[in-house]
Amino acid sequence: MQRILSGSFRLDRLRSGLWRVRNTRSPHEIALLRNLRATEQNFPADELPEEFDALRLEWNSPDSVAVVLGAAGRLLEADSVVLHEPNERLYDGLALARFTPDARRFWQRIFWLVRLPGGRALLRLVARGRRA
User: Fold this and answer.
1) Fewer CB within 10 Å of terminal CB in the chain, N or C?
2) Closest by alpha carbon to 57, among 87, 72, 78?
3) Is 113 contained in some domain?
4) What is the pLDDT along the chain (132 residues), one digit of tens a residue?
5) Which residues form the domain of 10?
6) Quick one: DSSP state of residue 22?
7) CA–CA separation, 29 and 128 (whole Å)
């Protein structure tokens, strides 16, 4: 499985063995890389770019993930990658409950009554009268 992302990325070292790659442009993807290392012996991990324009992740084997930072970057390897891709339109397809104008006016009045001194007691009396 392969995933190629483009944008404006920043690489941050969170702690020993854990790196975070975040996209500063929308949709703001975040990738957490565990045990990021260079595949070439002569390329030290301290020379990783702080900012780059593309991120390529390739899950070839269950033991490692191939990582390329930047369009012409060098091949790196990580033990695992967690990729968070936010979906801005996630809830658009759901039929969520919406208030009608009458229901909105009703609840505005209820909340107005609750704020008045003695309003809660008045609502309790009305609610008890409706149950009987």
Assistant:
1) C
2) 78
3) yes
4) 899 888 899 999 999 889 999 999 888 899 999 998 887 765 555 677 888 899 999 998 888 899 988 877 778 899 999 999 888 788 888 888 888 999 999 999 999 989 999 988 988 888 887 665
5) 2-84
6) E
7) 52
